[in-house]
Design brief:
This protein has 189 residues and is mainly α. It has 2 domains: 108 residues, Orthogonal Bundle (Rna Polymerase Sigma Factor, Chain: A), CATH 1.10.1740; 80 residues, Winged helix-like DNA-binding domain superfamily/Winged helix DNA-binding domain (Arc Repressor Mutant, subunit A). Helices cover 72% and strands 0% of the residues. It is built from 10 helices and no strands.
Length: 189
């Protein structure tokens, strides 16, 4: 029993060491090592990009694929100053944010107009929808700020830099997103 406790306590360190060896092998061209990295990290990365993409599976799939293509190309320059998981996570978030900015630049709805095109997505008083579904209904920038701040734990300054906005705008978008979520979840604003 004691051995199981000790091995469990060292599991994160063992995973990081394994990640390092996989990353070194993948950087050298070992495709099996890279596939192992993908299998290990893609579920967690998909979860965050799916939220940033508003629950749109096709967009999240594209962002995840782009993330791993970028990772494959950049892995030889990975300096091991952070954990591989941290590096991949940041890469995935940045890829999702680039996609979000690109869609905004192409004239996609990026504000309340988006909600007008989504029949059945709002709630009547007393009607409940789950949090994930409510997140999907938020305007893209407000959703991105909420996910980055409340789910991923980013600071407003980091969000402002990543999204190309003022820190005050990040705070305002977070306030707005939280208010919209409360309304969609059937709570008073």
């Amino acid at each position: 029993m004691l051995d199981a406790t000790v091995s469990t306590a060292h599991a994160p360190a063992a995973i990081a060491a394994d990640d390092d060896s996989l990353a070194r092998a993948a950087a050298g061209g070992d495709r099996q090592a890279y596939e192992s990295i993908y299998r290990r990290h893609s579920p967690r990365l998909y979860a965050v990009v799916w939220r940033l993409c508003g629950g749109e599976a096709a967009r999240a799939d594209d962002v995840l694929q782009d993330t791993f293509i970028r990772a494959w190309r950049a892995l030889p320059q990975f300096r091991f100053e952070s954990a591989l998981a941290t590096w991949l996570h940041r890469l995935a978030v940045n890829t999702a944010l680039m996609e979000l900015r690109a869609r905004g630049a192409e004239g996609e709805p990026a504000d309340e107009a988006l909600l007008d095109d989504m029949p059945g997505q709002t709630t009547c008083p007393g009607q409940q929808i789950d949090l994930e579904r409510a997140l999907e209904t938020l305007p893209p920038r407000a959703r991105a700020v909420l996910v980055l701040h409340d789910v991923e734990g980013w600071k407003h300054q980091e969000i402002a830099v990543a999204l190309g906005m003022a820190i005050g705008s990040s705070k305002a978008q977070l306030h707005r997103a939280r208010g919209l979520l409360r309304v969609r979840m059937g709570e008073p604003a």
